[in-house]
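dude i think i finally got it to work??
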Amino acid sequence: MHYPWWYVGGLTAPMLIALIATVHVFVAMYAVGGGIILAAETSRAYKENQRDVLDYLRSHLKFFIWLTVVFGAITGVGIWWTIGLTSPLATEALIHIFVFGWAMEWVFFILEIVSAFMFFYYWGKLDQKTHTTIGWIYGLSAWISLVIITGITSFMLTPGSFIENKQFWSAFFNPQTIPQIFARTGGSLLLASLYIFLHSSIKIKGQEFLRGIERRIAKWATFGAVLTIIGGVLWYVNLPESSKAALEGAASLNILMTLVFLATAVVFIFFYFGSLRGKGLLSPGYAALLFIFGILAVGSSEFVREAVRKPFIIYDYVYGHQIFKNEVNETKKVGFLNYGSWTRPYTLKKFPQLKDENNSIDFNKVDKLNWNDKVEIGKTLFMYHCNDCHAVIGVSGVQSMTRGWPRDIIKTSILEMDKMHYFMPPWSGNENEAELLTDYIQSIQLHHPILSRSGEKKSTQLNSSTKGGSNE
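look at this
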């Protein structure tokens, strides 16, 4: 609320972040796992003088660079662009807390990009030892980038002792850092193996050669699956109590968690029993099917990881509606709109008659406004207090969620939102603002699909309109 808010109708801006970030993760994890696998397999091929394997690895490296360096960079910029517009306070906090971490990340990111291009463009122009060393520089720098980013993103779920001591390293090495490093490293190797399976099944024609690639890569995938399982278990063990409650209480998260485990199990079974221990099944269709299961597992896990932070963006630090946890008492006292460095001047510009001698909003004057003006202020409250999770129509659309609710239920659900739903932030305005938000929700809500046909419902709605307005 200290910044202008970007509303993405239907989808909600945070959901847009989730979509862009998930697409980026599909590529970023391939960059890490693929870098390690390509460096190791290139080193092995040199030692065993396998020219055919080296030729294939070079052809895969070209595909790898186009996807991870070019497309990965575009989606990476996309993430920063969207979080800056949709979660500005949390973004500001992460930048300030992790200045040293971001500096380290940029150093290793530049090293990663330079070594990736050198590894490809100097293929065959350098001696084997130097070329292999450059490959390992790329693989390790990509993995260290993963470690740094994971320390920052895991902090958003469990800040650890940072809230008390405000120390960088306590923020970085929070209870979720090691579990998520295990899970993301394993997931990177697993996902990279799926990319290599898909690419090699299309590019390689000789079955014997293809079978050799399949068995080598299946070993990496199996190792990655083991790391993923270890990390996933540790991740759950170290979840905050509210996050575990969200997992248990939200049907959608239950479905996604089931999908993560089932898809991961399918990929592991086929890698181990079909490709590593079996006679070899690799074909374009087989690779594509496994790739889809892998994408489902990684994508679902990313959505779960983001969702279990609610009602926070940064757990126990920044709420989803862009308020620091320690600011809530003050926002309730002075008013949510008054507290915001953007919302107060915006509201007063549209309704100068509400200004008091301190250049603040005088909520005692709100009763003098007409119904449409009250709805307009309520809309501003909705956009800044509720839009992080709710659209008007679409994702968690308030119009359909409040369908047929009487006015008193709407207002109660606003004032007691954190008590009614533990994954929602506390109401952070005063009671006058709760009335204004109620006005807005009533102006957009739909009729009850059953009770609205009865005389009882009509009577209820008429009574409601006398208390503050109705959408009928």
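Strands lie at 312-314, 318-319.
im so relieved honestly
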